[in-house]
Amino acid sequence: MILSLNLKMSNEKITSFGGSILLADFIKNLGLEERLDCSLPKAGSNRGYKPSHKILSLISSIMVSGEGRYSNIDRLRKDDTIKTIWGLNNIPHSTKIGEWFLKNGKSNGDFATGKTKKTIDDISLDLAIKALKEKNIKEAIFDADVSLIEANKKESKKTYKGFRGMGSLLGFVNGYCLYSDFRNGNVHASVGLLEQLKYIHAKLSENGIKMIYRSDSAGYDSDIIEYCSKNNITYYIRAKEFNSLKKEAYDLEFQNLTEEKQISEFVYFLKGLPIRMITTREKAETDLPFDVYCNYRFIATNSNKNIFNVYEMYNDRGVCEYNIKELKQNFELDRLPSSYLGANGLWSSVVVLSYNILLAFKQKLNIKRLTARTVRWILSIPAKIVRHANRLTLSLSIDKKTFKRILKWRAKCLT
Questions:
Q1: Which residues lie closer than 8 Å to 196 by C-beta, 6 or more apart?
Q2: Cα(388)–Cα(394) distance, rounded to whole angstroms?
Q3: Domain range list for the chain
Q4: Sign of CA dihedral 234, 240, 242, 248
Q5: To pair with 337 at 20 to 30 A between CA atoms, which of 228, 230, 290, 320?
Q6: Do residues 178 and 192 touch, judged by C-beta distance below 8 A?
Q7: Of residues 110, 240, 128, the one with CA closest to residue 181
Q8: Residue 356 near residue 123 (C-beta atoms within 8 A)
Q9: Ramachandran region, residue 25 (left: φ > 0; alpha: ψ -120 to 50; beta: rest)
Q10: What percent of the chain has pLDDT over 90?
């Protein structure tokens, strides 16, 4: 039976995101606010908003609610409790946030550039590498891939898939996004891969982490393979199905990989570079009295692993697709807020920073297997600020067992 209830207005300052104090404490302990204020362009007057408040208000919106629209920030401006929790008593209006991104988001041709974007990218990279070092990782697989975003914007261009849009060249290590190069949709996936490889290899080497490189066919390039060979980088790269490769594979002796698939290997020369090539083929469905094979696929590598392990190692690249899916679905990287390339590029860097912060947060609390959506559910705890004896206390509406867990997690966030 549905009861007939009367309604009345309350002035109590209540939020549905009381658990976000864990994230707020974690970010405070990172020193993110100080670094943003020191590195980003400051307001023209003392009455202007701090750069950190503009970025952190968007980060808090993305991480707590999962919504990356500028307009969602206005909801936070009306929530006095969450403003107190995050220390953001002066949150700019969404229009001011949009204007700031337009002003500081730069572009050069079909690529997003600018000092502000570079600063946020550097902060995000430093955070990710620090988290990797805390896990004592000495060797890591770097996955490179391009993510396209369908968007009929003023400056977007037609992609190879036929729609107008923009995209990002991304690079992941252990789930963390170490590289984000935002570009227009017409830029080929292979553009920038060598520069990405050199930059991340240098950063990982500086921190004592050995790189293993893994890429789809966009990375099948003699310059990339030569760089990996000269710098002792083990690589697993999907090769393009050229006729010259297929001719080499036709006369090979194959081993059974599955009932429907076989595997073999040979040495192939790409512009004079000897490459170990792993090839697979699939059994075609025909009425002929003998087996017919098709769908030849090739993996270029310099690994000493056996062919079965090489095949499994490359197929594990699917985790990169999962990371991109997480960015798109749970951090709204599949939506672009601006009509302009530079502003969207700056916005995407903030989204990637939010993604890395949440990943480091989950690592700190040892809940890395949880999705962003599940973490947000944990943070969605009704709460209110109570003032007693000139002291503020956050009162959480939860059971005793959950409260003890929150206290335990908070202690970790503050160390």
A1: 144, 169, 171, 179, 181
A2: 11
A3: 14-104+369-401, 237-308
A4: positive
A5: 320
A6: no
A7: 110
A8: no
A9: alpha
A10: 61
Does residue 411 register a pLDDT over 90? yes
**Two tokens, residue 332:** 């709204």
Q: What is the pLDDT of residue 285?
A: 72
Output 347 or 415, whichever has higher pLDDT: 347
Mean pLDDT of 266-272: 90
Pairing verdict, β 164-173 and 176-184: antiparallel
- 215 pLDDT higher than 90: yes
Taking phi over 0 as left and psi of -120 to 50 as alpha, with beta for the rest, 287 belongs to alpha
Residue for token digits 């697709």?
321
Contact by Cβ (8 Å): 156, 164: yes
Residue 254 backbone dihedrals phi, psi, to 5 degrees: -105, 155
What are the structure tokens assigned to 61, written together?
Answer: 């919106």
What is the per-residue pLDDT across 31-90, written as a single tens digit (0 to 9) for each? 999 999 899 888 766 667 888 888 988 888 888 877 667 777 888 888 888 888 888 888
Neighbours of 72 (CB within 10 A): 18
